[in-house]
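haha ok so turns out i had the wrong file open the whole time. this is the CORRECT one, sorry everyone. sequence first:
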Amino acid sequence: MKINKELMKGSTVILILTLLDRKEMYGYEMTKEIEQSSGGVFTFKEGTLYPILHTLEVEQQVESYWNEEGGRKRKYYRITELGRKQLGEKKKEWSLFRTTVDRVIGEGHA
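then structure:
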């Protein structure tokens, strides 16, 4: 089943920050990790991922650096302390949202 793009829009930042909280990654690695972790339900195109990373960088939630491995230069991203703080807030917000939607549609326990 494919997920509506509008639903995805609200969860992209929390997914990216969560990945970077686990380890530093480059863009393509992030897209593959999201796809694999979600069982193929979530797929990010470069046109979706990089603008989000750029915004997070401007907001100082992530920072980037270049690293060369095996003769290949890649731009890596890592979460900052501000990004970790934001991730904590986003997780609380997500939890409240998820349980409230479940309650409304009858899937949660009142």
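The longest strand covers residues 62-69.
again sry for the mixup
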